[in-house]
């Protein structure tokens, strides 16, 4: 199968996602751009393939534009979509709703995961700055004493000359690397898929996980949630970290051993900015809520508010490439599914 589509007329396309998510993902301007590029079979999304008339509507679809709340697309569904050639997902992972049969049948897939990575990287960069400034510790000190700042007993403060370790050279990890060029910092990366040549091109040092944990002032996790990465930061890795190391997790809570991390945080030996936890959300009675060395946020690093339209805009860009006979800019390949989020 070719990697692009050229048509004598506009492609026939349909939205497949939760009904309330269309306006969240697509601005009015982007919806107008789509209507100028393709023939939309319906202005409303299909939220469930069991809806009466769903396949009567979708039977002619060559392109599905999916989003949050998309129903599972498997072989049974594909048998009823004989003209389908491309799925453009206006959100992050496609692994929650696309079965392997999609790729097996030669249907090309695109995702807006790269657009969702932008706010996560920005959040991580902000957490590094605020975390190393020990803002949470100072804030709690001010709340409890009402006095001027006193850094006695605090870990090292500031970003000047620090070593920052990234676990995973993922989309987010690579964007963080770019942002870290604004700091006077040494950057270490652990990723079994990152070779020395590529690391040099990124301006980072590729190291083992143990070395990264021992040397870093910040350890930030950017690996996908797959079998090989669950619990990748365990008691051993946490124990290797220097006193005062800042642990940041914007990926998935299960990548860090929750019990081991809690012990280190309760002791005050480490600091943490945790946007994801295990379990998520944490129970109201969790001791982490009250610790002066921990910042907890409710999974807000990814696209929220005005950041969400960036996902729809990337999907529209991909559709434009299709209409111009160009290959997808952000393809999701079957060979990569085992090691991406």
Task: Write down the overall mean pLDDT.
Answer: 95
Order of helices and strands: EHHEHEHEHEHHEHEHEHEHEHEEH
Shape: elongated
Q: Strand arrangement, largest sheet?
A: 8-7-6-9-10-11-12
Structural class: alpha/beta
Q: Total strand count, please?
A: 12
For the CA atoms, what is the radius of gyration? 23 Å
**Percentage of residues assigned to helices:** 25-40%
End-to-end span in angstroms?
A: 26 Å
Biggest sheet architecture:
7 strands, parallel
**Count of DSSP H/I helices:** 13
Question: Are there runs of 5+ residues with pLDDT below 50, and where?
Answer: 1-7
Work out the strand percent: 5-15%
Describe this structure in words.
There is one protein chain. With 341 residues, the protein is of the alpha/beta class. Helices cover 33% and strands 14% of the residues. Strands 8-7-6-9-10-11-12 form a seven-stranded parallel β-sheet, sandwiched between helices. A five-stranded parallel β-sheet has the order 2-1-3-4-5, covered by helices on one side. Helix 2 (28-37) packs parallel to helix 13 and helix 6 packs across helix 8. The longest helix has 20 residues, at 113-132. The protein is elongated, with a radius of gyration of 23 Å. The two termini are 26 Å apart. The model is unreliable at 1-7 (pLDDT under 50).
